[in-house]
Every structure is written in structure tokens, then in C-alpha cells.
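step=encode ok
step=design start
structure_in=
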């Protein structure tokens, strides 16, 4: 098994290795903007972050702050999260399964019922003016910004963490 070294956070930074397991749900007033090739998708200052050990945050935005008509039900099969329950996938202006929600989340995650998470690998996601970098590996969809340090689970050699 490959070992990892926790990066020491600097001023104003968080280490994903300080995030809890099971994950925490934390509200945020930071400005979060999502865009697709066809135009704006969402803009909010009322998001939630899910913080889980070894993962950059996943952001969930209220459906009221998503552009009308941006989402259509996806043909992607539902997946199961051990913490949040069954995920429903959404196509975003034709980009397949670029968003997901938990319509009936498990205990502790009720505040994000119906909220939307967006894939930064498929869409342009921005937090307070900073472009988000996608979590490596393509399986998880955490949002990497300069205020979050790793190393992050998801890339080659990290599955055993």
C-alpha cells in the first residue's frame, strides 16, 4: 500500500485529513457559480459542503438557485452513498450525469434533500471567483480550491487509504 503524507495547511487553509468520518455537513455563504458550455447553471451564497476525511469538499446548491430548464433527469443509474443514501443523476444542458442529488437523504443529511452537486470535471465550477479543480481519478467529484490541501483520495495508488 502506498503511504501518504498529510500536507500542512497554511493560513486560511484546511487539510482534508482534518475532516471527519462520517462526513460533516457544513453550510457556506461563499459565492458558488456553475456554468455549462451552453451558459450559466447556478449561482448561490447558500450552499452546503460535505467534508469527509481524505476528500476535497463536495458542494451542494439549493435547487432554487439553479437556472430553470438547466436540468433534465439522467438515464444514469442511481448509486448508493454509505453516508447520504441513493443518488439521483441529472443531465445539465445536455452534459450527461453532470449533477446529482439526494432526494431522500439519510439521517443527518436531511438539509441537502433535493440540493444539487455538480461535477467540476464536466462543468465550470467557481468558488469566490476561483476556478475549481476536479478531484483526481474520475470516481469522486470533490472540488479542489487553494484553501484545501491533501493529499486527496481518488488518484492512482490511493484506493487503499
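sequence_out=
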Amino acid at each position: 500500500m502506498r503511504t501518504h503524507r498529510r500536507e500542512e495547511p497554511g493560513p486560511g487553509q484546511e487539510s482534508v485529513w482534518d475532516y471527519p468520518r462520517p462526513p460533516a455537513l457544513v453550510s457556506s455563504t461563499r459565492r458558488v457559480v456553475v456554468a455549462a458550455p451552453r451558459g450559466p447553471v447556478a449561482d448561490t451564497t447558500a450552499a452546503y459542503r460535505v467534508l469527509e476525511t481524505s476528500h476535497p469538499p463536495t458542494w451542494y446548491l439549493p435547487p432554487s438557485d439553479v437556472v430553470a430548464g438547466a436540468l433534465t433527469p439522467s438515464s444514469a443509474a442511481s448509486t448508493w452513498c454509505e453516508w447520504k443514501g441513493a443518488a439521483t443523476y441529472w443531465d445539465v444542458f445536455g452534459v450527461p450525469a453532470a449533477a446529482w442529488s439526494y432526494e431522500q437523504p439519510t439521517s443527518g443529511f436531511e438539509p441537502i434533500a433535493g440540493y444539487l452537486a455538480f461535477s467540476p470535471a464536466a462543468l465550470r465550477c467557481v468558488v469566490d471567483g476561483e476556478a475549481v479543480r476536479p478531484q483526481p481519478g474520475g470516481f469522486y467529484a470533490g472540488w479542489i480550491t487553494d484553501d484545501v490541501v491533501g493529499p486527496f483520495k481518488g488518484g492512482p495508488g490511493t484506493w487503499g487509504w
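step=design ok
step=annotate ok -> The chain has no helices and 17 strands.
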